[in-house]
Write a structure and sequence with these properties.
Elements: E1 2-9, H1 13-22, H2 24-29, E2 34-38, E3 46-53, H3 56-70, E4 85-90
Antiparallel strand pairs: 1-3, 1-4, 2-3
């Protein structure tokens, strides 16, 4: 499994979450197998998002989609308060 790990500050969780939910179909079509939304304890204005994929190519393709179609267009990313940091991780627990 491959995980696209994203971190970024937000202005308002409800606004941000509504925007995240609007892209559910895009995530499904891109091959997202599951996701986790977290924030640090005591800091609800910082989000950590993990999106799970079957492979690195799918994760890379979705990251490209996010950079060009979501994060680059303020109307698609309301609530975002800064530049997201994204990294792709591979699961090595079974190696």
């Amino acid at each position: 499994m491959t995980t696209l790990h994203i971190e970024h500050p937000i202005n308002d969780f409800k606004v941000w979450k509504a925007a995240f939910d609007r892209f559910a179909e895009f995530r499904m079509k891109a091959g997202v197998r599951g996701h986790r939304l977290q924030h640090p304890v005591g800091d609800p204005r910082f989000m950590i998002i993990d999106l799970d994929f079957d492979n690195e190519d799918s994760a890379e393709a979705f990251l490209t989609f996010l950079r060009s179609n979501v994060w680059a267009q303020p109307e698609n990313s309301p609530g975002l308060a800064g530049t997201p940091i994204a990294r792709i991780f591979e699961d090595t627990s079974q190696q």
